[in-house]
Design a protein that fits this description.
single chain; 263 residues; 11 strands; five-stranded parallel sheet; three-stranded mixed sheet; 17% strand; alpha/beta; elongated
Length: 263
């Protein structure tokens, strides 16, 4: 078992490394102050588990986790943080994959004993949305949502991708149809696709997943249980589920992340 640790604060890194060595003395353990050094080492020598400080200068912990998934899609990522926003309810929700500073041997042992915590479904979700790998949509009981038109499903995927931002019909058309002219024929076709999308959602009682305004649409993120959104919220289970594939069937889909989940 090979374990890598990174923290740009030398004292915190020493404490983390000491705790990991005490918790797993038989493991091959290497520590780094700079994320790019850890990434280079993982590429050259491999890695099974990575303990990553979330807030670092330059490349932050989540950006590093994303890069590490290209090295080993099944790598276990455990975040280390000194910020209080991950305590209380949030800490309990993301029970696996988070350690609060100062790091202790007991905390490390607890994480190593259960590296693959399942994602906890949101109780109020109307739909479960899968963005990692191929895009797909499910009802809360796991049934696949059928869209009568594949392009209607793609519109829903694009709205999910925009994470609740309002999208004009022209913008949706530009994403789906690239350089084709936005003329009356295309506008009519797009309206047909949107109507079909809403009809498919209405059949399963999930029409509230779409927010409509004048000549624009958005998803209601509050009623979606989405792996991509969980990743944005630093959910350890979602980060571990990410295998460097995002909405694979759509050419326009680029995995986007920053500290605030903004675009």
């Amino acid at each position: 078992m090979r374990i890598l640790c990174v923290d740009d604060e030398p004292l915190m890194l020493q404490m983390l490394e000491a705790a990991v060595k005490e918790a797993k003395p038989e493991a091959d353990i290497a520590s780094f102050e700079y994320p790019d050094e850890l990434l280079d080492d993982a590429k050259e020598n491999g890695c099974d588990i990575a303990f990553l400080d979330i807030h670092m200068s330059g490349m932050n912990g989540v950006e590093l986790a994303k890069e590490l998934k290209t090295v080993n899609p099944k790598m276990n990522i455990i975040f280390v943080t000194g910020f209080s926003e991950y305590t209380g309810d949030a800490m309990r929700l993301h029970a696996s994959g988070y350690i609060m500073k100062p790091v202790t041997t007991e905390a490390v042992k607890s994480e190593l004993e259960d590296l693959r915590f399942p994602i906890i479904p949101k109780d109020n979700s109307l739909l479960r949305v899968q963005c990692f790998g191929n895009f797909d949509v499910f009802t809360p009981d796991g049934a696949n949502v059928h869209f009568e038109r594949s392009r209607s499903k793609e519109i829903f995927a694009y709205l999910v991708h925009r994470h609740g931002s309002s999208c004009s019909t022209r913008e949706i058309a530009a994403a789906l149809f690239e350089d084709e002219p936005y003329d009356k024929k295309q506008q009519s076709y797009l309206q047909t696709l949107i109507s079909a999308m809403i009809k498919s959602l209405k059949k399963i009682g999930a029409e509230a997943a779409i927010v409509k305004s004048y000549n624009a649409l958005a998803v209601n993120v509050d009623v979606l249980d989405c792996d991509y959104y969980r990743f944005q919220e630093l959910d350890a289970g979602a980060v571990n589920a990410y295998q460097n594939e995002y909405m694979s069937q759509y050419y326009w889909a680029d995995f986007l992340y920053n500290d605030y989940g903004d675009y």
